[in-house]
Specification:
The complex is a heterotrimer. Chain A is an all-alpha fold. Chain A has one domain (2-259). In chain A, 78% of the residues lie in helices and 0% in strands. Chain A is built from 14 helices and no strands. In chain A, helix 3 (54-70) packs antiparallel against helix 6 (98-128). Chain A is globular and about 55 Å long. Chain B has one domain. By secondary structure, chain B is mainly alpha-helical. Helices cover 73% and strands 0% of the residues of chain B. By secondary structure, chain C is an alpha/beta fold. A 6-stranded mixed sheet of chain C has the order 5-6-7-3-8-9, with helices on both faces. Classes of the chains: A mainly alpha, B mainly alpha, C alpha/beta. Chains in contact: A-B, B-C. The A-B interface holds A 20-21, 23-25, 27-28, 31-32, 35, 38-39, 42-43, 47-48, 73, 168-170, 172-174, 176-177, 180, 183-184, 189-190, 194-196, 199 and B 27, 29-30, 33-34, 36-38, 40-41, 44-45, 47-48, 51-52, 54-56, 59-60, 123, 176-177, 179-180, 182-184, 186-187, 190-191, 194-195, 197-199, 203.
Chain lengths: 261, 267, 299
């Protein structure tokens, strides 16, 4: 366990030196929140759901954006490269789980980016909405903890995309699809309550809904029961994805040793 | 003599595209997958928006067909960059970062064009197809405004290409801008992914001049409904300025090219 | 004989940023030399001496900070395009071939880059393929070639337009003994048959001994030695080794520095003993070069 914490710390300190990357993400975050705020002011809140105000929605979107920009970029590309060049075989020589290693890298990066993105985003939102706070702001600490679970689940998804290069030659197309799944079904781009009922329930039943909406929407609809549901659903999908990733990795291990001769 | 040199120059560009295309299809499964998934990708995004428009019917005067047209135009313009000038953007940034622009500097051809035309992204074909589907399905295009549509696509494509020349060239000026350039490009794209009608006042003015995403996501829809020459001239003017500026930015940066400084200052 | 390459006081300064601010790095301080048509010159020096930077300036990849140069009578920075038709370059650590495609596709494209008519291009490529023994490799994707095979293709790629001057930056880096030997042979054929002028950098003394007539040594951004390979071996010996086997079977090995006389040393050693065998050996070229790198100024 100690070595996985070390991996996280190394990834985190690596991020501290990448100021440009962070600034670029902050810029994108600001533009996104700004445009979303404009969009929201035009369509008005009362038409959708009387319980949810504009302030609630923009906070909800901020948490989604933190997930989106808080992860390391190109993780799938990196794994794909290792699969295709066979470098993955060298990785296996080390007494550390490949999947665990990649996920810890993600979480370490997230550790550094989350507070910065959240702070700047919250400051901007407060400015745009004249200091109004979302209904369940006191749930923020719990949400932050759960966001790490979401990041873990999303990273497992990205690892899956990268490993799929074994069959697909190219992991980019699958990456797009997963990314759109995160946007549309995870509610990172729209609040899921925009959707018709069936689509809404379908989205919640996917891992995307579990990593996204289920956690991020707690900012306005938190109750202890909802938080427990979100945690259980995260736990469920994390164990499923872990199983899938390990299975794929197991197959890959055998293939690589055959190729390596 | 002039005729002959024109002929050989034309042959060179043709062969360059042919080679780039062959490289793009060298991994066949990947080629097909990229096209298909890109179409799926574009259409999935539309499902979300469909749900939104289904709830609100119109947003600031735009209905779903306006939005489809806008998305179709963005995607089609984007695809022209992707298919014909994909060398601009990340590819260029990497060439500069790793000092691989050397090969282009060694060839007796125009460096910028040679770089731009030496990559084709198969996904661009998927974008092109979905763009055409969206433009047709929007029902906004007819015989009378087909010319305007072509003009708008040209404007959009030129803006995407110029922006990518600009972002790709950032690496000439300071090191390690590849990721920064990519993110800034996404910021630009983000501005064109919401219905253009939501922008008004000062923001709209900025988007029509300094940060001209409005030339892709705001003006074209208006022009398809009711064409006015002044707006078209404005679009042309801004586009030419942006293109010219990005070309100057590239050549000015080229003078600072350090050829592979990235590899630990290998002198 | 005419001078293909004339370099005068060339310099290049890079500005490197680090935590403490921007620093000036004078990669090339002042380099001057001339190279005659049809000669092969080794351009050597320790890492960071300014070799690659100089070559990149001469091939117009980098813009110099000062000084001037003429290649085949042309200014590399003002007459880039004309010059490119007449020179070629291979950078050992860079590839000009398309990774996923067979080398033949790259060759075809390169022929059109230099506006060579198809018919002519076919004749030249066929000839080069034959000379470089590429028949079996030419239709395989470049990514599946070995390093030595790829390097042969790289060299062919830069010979298609029949350059008068060829710049090679570490063409044998990372190759095995056999591949190195083959490339040296092919290059020296090129010099002999076509009168191509070659300026090459290399850290491999074998390249220098087998291929080059002349050595230009550069260190700290300046030329510190400009001489023939033979002269370098004779004149700049750091030491010599005398080994003697006497009739009684005993052996003696003595190392003398270059300012001591071989004649005197041997006389005093032998005295009136009978000897069975005596050899005076020069140190390997590598030792000579290493001793020269330590000096700041040789000539």
């Amino acid at each position: 366990m100690k070595k996985y914490i070390r991996i996280m710390l190394t990834a985190a300190s690596d991020q501290i030196f990448r100021i440009k990357s962070l600034l670029a993400r902050l810029f994108l975050l600001i533009i996104m929140l700004f445009v979303f705020n404009l969009f929201w002011n035009i369509i008005g809140s009362e038409k959708i759901d009387s319980n949810i105000s504009a302030v609630n929605f923009i906070w909800y979107l901020l948490l989604g954006a933190v997930l989106q920009f808080g992860r390391p970029e190109g993780l799938h590309r990196q794994i794909e490269g290792e699969v295709r060049s066979g470098d993955i075989a060298y990785r296996m020589m080390r007494p550390v789980s490949f999947i665990g290693y990649k996920c810890c890298e993600s979480l370490g990066t997230f550790c550094v980016r989350l507070p910065i993105l959240l702070f700047v985003g919250a400051a901007l939102i407060t400015f745009l909405t004249d200091g109004a706070l979302p209904d369940q702001i006191q749930a923020l600490p719990i949400i932050i903890v759960l966001l790490f679970g979401s990041m873990f689940l999303l990273s497992l998804g990205t690892v899956f995309v990268g490993l799929s290069a074994l069959y697909l030659q190219d992991s980019l197309p699958l990456f797009w699809l997963v990314q759109k799944g995160e946007y549309i079904l995870g509610g990172l781009f729209f609040p899921l309550t925009f959707y018709p009922d069936e689509l809404f329930r379908f989205a919640l039943a996917t891992p995307f809904g579990s990593a996204g909406y289920n956690v991020t929407s707690l900012i306005y609809r938190y109750t202890p029961e909802q938080a427990i549901t979100a945690t259980l659903s995260l736990g469920f999908w994390i164990s499923i994805m872990l199983g899938i990733d390990y299975l794929l990795f197991f197959i890959l291990k055998r293939k690589v040793s055959v190729n390596g001769g | 003599m002039v005729a002959k040199s024109r002929h050989t120059t034309f042959r060179f560009w043709l062969r360059l595209y042919k080679t780039a295309f062959k490289q793009a299809i060298a991994l066949k499964a990947s080629f097909v997958l990229r096209i298909l998934f890109m179409i799926a990708n574009n259409l999935i995004m539309l499902v979300g928006w469909f749900a939104v428009f289904n709830t609100f019917k119109t947003i600031n005067g735009w209905d779903f067909s306006d939005f489809m047209f806008m998305t179709g135009l963005v995607v089609t313009s984007f695809s022209i960059w992707s298919i014909f000038f994909r060398g601009a953007g990340i590819y260029m940034a990497r060439l500069i970062e790793y000092g691989e622009l050397d090969n282009y500097l060694l060839a007796p051809k125009n460096i910028l064009l040679h770089t731009l035309c030496s990559r084709i992204d198969p996904a661009g074909l998927g974008d092109f197809l979905s763009g055409i589907i969206l433009l047709t399905a929007s029902g906004l295009v007819g015989f009378n405004n087909f010319g305007v549509l072509l003009f708008c696509i040209m404007v959009g494509a030129t803006l995407f290409i110029s922006l990518n020349i600009f972002l790709g060239s950032l690496n000439f000026y300071t090191a390690d801008n590849t990721d920064l350039g990519e993110r800034l490009f996404y910021s630009f794209l983000n501005l064109t992914s919401y219905p253009g009608c939501i922008y008004s006042g000062a923001v709209k003015l900025i988007l029509l001049s300094l940060l001209p995403t409005g030339l892709i996501s705001i003006l074209p829809v208006e022009q398809m409904h009711k064409t006015d020459t002044l707006s078209l001239l404005w679009m042309l003017l801004v586009t030419l300025i942006v293109l010219g500026g990005s070309i100057l930015f590239f050549y000015n940066g080229l003078k600072r090219y350090a050829s592979g400084n990235k590899i630990g200052g290998k002198l | 004989m005419s001078q293909d390459i004339i370099v005068d006081n060339l310099s290049k300064t890079f500005f490197v940023k680090d935590q403490t601010g921007t620093k000036e790095v004078n990669a090339v301080k002042s380099v001057s030399f001339q190279i005659e048509t049809g000669t092969c010159v080794a351009f050597i020096g320790p890492n960071g001496a300014g070799k690659s930077t100089t070559i990149k300036m001469l091939t117009s990849i980098l813009f110099p900070s000062g000084g001037s140069a003429q290649i085949l009578g042309l200014n590399p920075w003002k007459e880039r395009r004309q010059l490119m038709y007449r020179i070629g370059a291979v950078f050992g650590q860079r590839s000009q071939l398309w990774y996923h495609l067979p080398a033949r596709c790259s060759f075809d494209l390169i022929a059109s880059i230099y506006d060579i008519p198809d018919k002519e291009a076919r004749i030249r490529t066929t000839d080069l393929i034959h000379r470089f023994d590429l028949k079996k490799l030419i239709d395989k994707p470049v990514r599946s070639l070995s390093l030595g095979e790829r390097m042969r293709c790289e060299i062919v790629a830069s010979l298609i337009h029949e350059p008068k001057v060829l710049f090679l930056d570490e063409p044998t880096i990372g190759l095995d003994v056999e591949a190195k030997g083959l490339i040296r042979e092919l290059l020296s054929d090129q010099v002999r048959q076509n009168g191509t002028t070659i300026l090459m950098t290399s850290h491999d003394t074998g390249d220098i001994e087998h291929l080059c007539q002349r050595v230009l040594m550069i260190n700290h951004g300046r030329v510190i030695l400009d001489t023939t390979v033979t002269e370098m071996k004779q004149k700049y010996l750091p030491h010599q080794e005398i080994s003697i086997i006497y009739d009684d079977g005993s052996e003696q090995i003595i190392r003398i520095s270059s300012d001591q006389s071989v004649n005197k040393t041997i006389r005093t050693l032998i005295g009136n003993k009978n000897i069975r065998n005596l050899t005076v050996a020069n140190p390997p070229l590598e030792d000579i070069i290493r001793s020269l790198y330590k000096k700041d100024k040789v000539v």
